[in-house]
Protein backbone atom coordinates (compact mmCIF):
# COMPACT_ATOMS: atom_id res chain seq x y z
CA UNK A 1 0.00 0.00 0.00
CA UNK A 2 2.82 2.24 0.81
CA UNK A 3 4.36 1.54 -2.59
CA UNK A 4 1.07 2.31 -4.32
CA UNK A 5 0.91 5.63 -2.60
CA UNK A 6 4.48 6.48 -3.61
CA UNK A 7 3.87 5.36 -7.20
CA UNK A 8 0.67 7.37 -7.35
CA UNK A 9 2.46 10.40 -5.93
CA UNK A 10 5.30 10.06 -8.42
CA UNK A 11 2.88 9.55 -11.29
CA UNK A 12 0.90 12.70 -10.52
CA UNK A 13 4.05 14.62 -9.73
CA UNK A 14 5.66 13.70 -13.03
CA UNK A 15 2.58 14.41 -15.07
CA UNK A 16 2.13 17.83 -13.55
CA UNK A 17 5.73 18.66 -14.30
CA UNK A 18 5.58 17.41 -17.87
CA UNK A 19 2.23 19.08 -18.49
CA UNK A 20 3.68 22.54 -18.04
CA UNK A 21 4.86 24.16 -21.23
CA UNK A 22 7.53 26.78 -21.33
CA UNK A 23 6.66 29.84 -23.36
CA UNK A 24 8.87 30.26 -26.39
CA UNK A 25 10.95 33.39 -26.26
CA UNK A 26 11.84 34.61 -29.69
CA UNK A 27 14.46 37.29 -29.82
CA UNK A 28 13.68 39.86 -32.47
CA UNK A 29 16.68 41.54 -33.97
CA UNK A 30 16.04 45.25 -33.72
CA UNK A 31 19.07 46.22 -35.75
CA UNK A 32 18.62 46.61 -39.45
CA UNK A 33 21.48 45.39 -41.51
CA UNK A 34 22.15 47.87 -44.25
CA UNK A 35 24.15 46.93 -47.24
CA UNK A 36 27.30 48.96 -47.66
CA UNK A 37 28.02 50.11 -51.18
CA UNK A 38 31.78 50.66 -51.52
CA UNK A 39 31.27 52.66 -54.73
CA UNK A 40 28.83 55.15 -53.18
CA UNK A 41 31.50 57.81 -52.44
CA UNK A 42 32.94 57.47 -55.93
CA UNK A 43 29.50 57.81 -57.51
CA UNK A 44 28.72 60.93 -55.48
CA UNK A 45 32.05 62.50 -56.42
CA UNK A 46 31.52 61.62 -60.09
CA UNK A 47 28.03 63.13 -60.11
CA UNK A 48 29.32 66.33 -58.47
CA UNK A 49 32.13 66.52 -61.02
CA UNK A 50 29.64 66.33 -63.89
CA UNK A 51 27.14 68.85 -62.48
CA UNK A 52 27.89 70.79 -59.30
CA UNK A 53 25.36 69.85 -56.63
CA UNK A 54 24.33 66.55 -58.22
CA UNK A 55 26.40 64.61 -55.68
CA UNK A 56 24.55 66.37 -52.86
CA UNK A 57 21.26 65.37 -54.48
CA UNK A 58 22.55 61.77 -54.73
CA UNK A 59 23.36 61.90 -51.00
CA UNK A 60 19.91 63.40 -50.27
CA UNK A 61 21.46 66.51 -48.70
CA UNK A 62 19.24 68.99 -50.51
CA UNK A 63 19.97 71.83 -48.09
CA UNK A 64 23.53 72.03 -49.45
CA UNK A 65 22.39 72.96 -52.98
CA UNK A 66 21.93 76.69 -52.23
CA UNK A 67 25.38 76.76 -50.65
CA UNK A 68 27.01 75.12 -53.66
CA UNK A 69 25.27 77.28 -56.25
CA UNK A 70 25.57 80.40 -54.12
CA UNK A 71 29.34 80.02 -53.75
CA UNK A 72 30.00 79.14 -57.39
CA UNK A 73 27.46 81.68 -58.69
CA UNK A 74 28.83 84.56 -56.60
CA UNK A 75 32.37 83.80 -57.71
CA UNK A 76 31.21 83.66 -61.34
CA UNK A 77 29.44 86.99 -61.00
CA UNK A 78 32.58 88.67 -59.65
CA UNK A 79 34.66 87.06 -62.41
CA UNK A 80 32.38 88.43 -65.14
CA UNK A 81 32.17 91.87 -63.52
CA UNK A 82 35.94 92.14 -63.07
CA UNK A 83 36.53 90.98 -66.65
CA UNK A 84 34.10 93.60 -67.98
CA UNK A 85 35.75 96.42 -66.01
CA UNK A 86 39.23 95.19 -66.97
CA UNK A 87 38.30 95.36 -70.67
CA UNK A 88 36.77 98.82 -70.19
CA UNK A 89 39.94 100.29 -68.65
CA UNK A 90 42.22 98.40 -71.05
CA UNK A 91 40.32 99.67 -74.10
CA UNK A 92 40.44 103.23 -72.76
CA UNK A 93 44.20 102.97 -72.24
CA UNK A 94 44.69 101.51 -75.76
CA UNK A 95 42.59 104.34 -77.26
CA UNK A 96 44.76 106.94 -75.50
CA UNK A 97 47.94 105.28 -76.79
CA UNK A 98 46.49 105.27 -80.32
CA UNK A 99 45.77 109.01 -80.06
CA UNK A 100 41.98 108.71 -80.02
CA UNK A 101 39.99 111.10 -77.82
CA UNK A 102 39.17 109.88 -74.29
CA UNK A 103 35.68 108.68 -73.43
CA UNK A 104 33.53 110.79 -71.18
CA UNK A 105 33.42 108.40 -68.24
CA UNK A 106 37.17 107.84 -67.89
CA UNK A 107 38.50 111.14 -69.28
CA UNK A 108 39.45 112.53 -65.87
CA UNK A 109 41.82 109.61 -65.09
CA UNK A 110 45.45 109.81 -66.10
CA UNK A 111 47.38 106.91 -67.65
CA UNK A 112 48.91 105.65 -64.39
CA UNK A 113 45.48 105.36 -62.79
CA UNK A 114 44.17 103.46 -65.80
CA UNK A 115 47.07 101.01 -65.53
CA UNK A 116 46.52 100.62 -61.76
CA UNK A 117 42.80 99.99 -62.30
CA UNK A 118 43.59 97.40 -64.98
CA UNK A 119 45.93 95.57 -62.63
CA UNK A 120 43.37 95.66 -59.81
CA UNK A 121 40.54 94.29 -61.97
CA UNK A 122 42.86 91.68 -63.48
CA UNK A 123 43.85 90.56 -59.95
CA UNK A 124 40.18 90.42 -58.88
CA UNK A 125 39.31 88.42 -62.00
CA UNK A 126 42.09 85.92 -61.36
CA UNK A 127 41.08 85.53 -57.70
CA UNK A 128 37.47 84.99 -58.73
CA UNK A 129 38.54 82.27 -61.16
CA UNK A 130 40.54 80.66 -58.37
CA UNK A 131 37.49 80.77 -56.09
CA UNK A 132 35.31 79.19 -58.80
CA UNK A 133 37.74 76.29 -59.14
CA UNK A 134 38.12 76.02 -55.34
CA UNK A 135 34.38 75.88 -54.69
CA UNK A 136 33.95 73.37 -57.53
CA UNK A 137 36.59 71.08 -56.00
CA UNK A 138 35.15 71.62 -52.52
CA UNK A 139 31.74 70.56 -53.88
CA UNK A 140 33.24 67.28 -55.15
CA UNK A 141 35.11 66.62 -51.89
CA UNK A 142 31.99 67.34 -49.82
CA UNK A 143 29.88 64.90 -51.84
CA UNK A 144 32.55 62.20 -51.53
CA UNK A 145 33.02 62.57 -47.77
CA UNK A 146 29.30 62.83 -47.09
CA UNK A 147 28.63 59.62 -49.04
CA UNK A 148 31.40 57.81 -47.17
CA UNK A 149 30.22 58.98 -43.75
CA UNK A 150 26.56 58.20 -44.45
CA UNK A 151 27.43 54.48 -44.36
CA UNK A 152 29.27 54.80 -41.05
CA UNK A 153 27.52 52.86 -38.28
CA UNK A 154 26.68 55.12 -35.35
CA UNK A 155 25.59 53.26 -32.24
CA UNK A 156 22.88 54.59 -29.94
CA UNK A 157 25.00 53.47 -27.00
CA UNK A 158 27.51 56.24 -27.59
CA UNK A 159 26.54 59.73 -26.44
CA UNK A 160 28.44 62.99 -26.39
CA UNK A 161 26.71 65.57 -24.20
CA UNK A 162 27.64 68.91 -22.70
CA UNK A 163 28.16 68.73 -18.94
CA UNK A 164 27.95 71.40 -16.25
CA UNK A 165 29.53 70.61 -12.89
CA UNK A 166 28.81 72.97 -10.00
CA UNK A 167 31.74 73.34 -7.63
CA UNK A 168 30.24 73.74 -4.16
CA UNK A 169 33.43 75.09 -2.59
CA UNK A 170 34.03 77.97 -4.96
CA UNK A 171 30.43 78.35 -6.25
CA UNK A 172 31.64 78.26 -9.82
CA UNK A 173 30.40 76.27 -12.76
CA UNK A 174 32.75 73.98 -14.62
CA UNK A 175 31.78 73.40 -18.22
CA UNK A 176 32.85 70.37 -20.20
CA UNK A 177 31.84 67.55 -22.42
CA UNK A 178 30.84 64.09 -21.22
CA UNK A 179 31.42 61.04 -23.38
CA UNK A 180 29.15 58.18 -22.29
CA UNK A 181 29.14 54.61 -23.53
CA UNK A 182 26.43 52.30 -22.20
CA UNK A 183 26.80 48.53 -22.33
Describe the model.
- It is a single chain.
- With 183 residues, the chain is mostly helical.
- It has 5 helices and 2 strands; from the N terminus they run H-H-H-H-H-E-E.
- Helix 2 runs antiparallel to helix 5 (111-150).
- The radius of gyration is 38 Å and the shape is elongated.
Write a compact overview of the structure shown.
This protein is mostly helical.
Name the descriptors.
183 residues; mainly alpha; two-stranded antiparallel ribbon; 5 helices
User: What percent strand?
Assistant: 5-15%
**Uncertain runs:** none
| Helix/strand class | mainly alpha
Gross morphology is: elongated
Overall number of strands: 2
Main sheet record: 2 strands, antiparallel
Order of helices and strands: HHHHHEE
The helix tally amounts to: 5
Strand order of the largest sheet: 1-2
Helix content: 55-70%
Q: Evaluate the radius of gyration.
A: 38 Å
Average pLDDT = 85
For the termini, the CA-CA separation is 60 Å
Describe the secondary-structure layout.
Blueprint: H1 2-19, H2 40-50, H3 54-58, H4 65-98, H5 111-150, E1 158-167, E2 172-181
Antiparallel strand pairs: 1-2
